[in-house]
Amino acid sequence: MSEIAKSILEALKEPYELSPEQIEFYQENRYIKLKNVLNKDVIERYNLLIREKVQELNTMNIPLEERDVYNKAFLQIMNIWTHSDTIKEFVFSKRIAKIASDLMQVEGVRLYHDQALFKEPGGGFTPWHADQYYWPLESDKTVTAWIPLQETPLEMGPLEFSAKSHLMKEGRNLKISDDSEVEIQKKLRLGDFQQVNEAFELGEVSFHSGWVFHRAGANKTDKMRQVMTMIYMDKNMKLKQPENVNQQADWETWCQGAKIGKVINTPINPILYEKTS
């Protein structure tokens, strides 16, 4: 292994220390953006590896203009770590998993699943939604790390957040669609929730909880918007009875072998970080 490769692996393990103010901000708003989580060498290495794997695994062959709203929004490849030991190093990063654990104030986190979200040049907007609509999980102790693999200006469609919107119950029954964009936007406006839409610097990573509403704009550039995400859950998370067909599908796909009412302790939901006494 080269010295550069060794330094990259060390960077993925090195703790990123959060301040009490940052943890308080996340707890209040249920999202946060953190600068300098990853260095340039890390991003360049995994940008290339993840891009190649997305190209290999992508089965979308419908022209962009003929797709529905969901499929215009992004190319989506999940659990890439199961297809590449090298990408697994990135997904299993203790540095990122520790941030997730510290933000949620839990004793450790498991992987729910990873997903690459590549928004093609000319790709459409991602409608307002809350991720946990799709997840058969017993509590809201969940957080997604959204990791751009390049600088992401507003024209490229970075993630937008509605601060404190985890407090809003309306819209939680809506999947990603034109309807969710219209209905949730209306409710957020009535609730006077702050909308946060900012560019991402290279190395900047955001974290958002499962019930905070978010969206992303269209990619108006001529470059692919390449993003890797990891979804974490409390290491003691239990499976709940699915409440819709999407949660049933997630149980069968991302929590294979888990039992309702029991901790989701399966081979594809490993603990990625635990606090030590």
TrEMBL record:
Q: Give the keywords, sorted.
A: Dioxygenase, Oxidoreductase
Q: Which cofactor does it need?
A: Fe(2+)
Q: Which GO terms describe its molecular function?
A: 2-oxoglutarate-dependent dioxygenase activity; iron ion binding
Q: Which InterPro entries match?
A: Phytyl_CoA_dOase-like (IPR008775)
Q: Which PANTHER family match?
A: ECTOINE DIOXYGENASE, PHYTANOYL-COA DIOXYGENASE DOMAIN CONTAINING 1
> What is the protein's name according to its record?
Ectoine hydroxylase-related dioxygenase (Phytanoyl-CoA dioxygenase family)
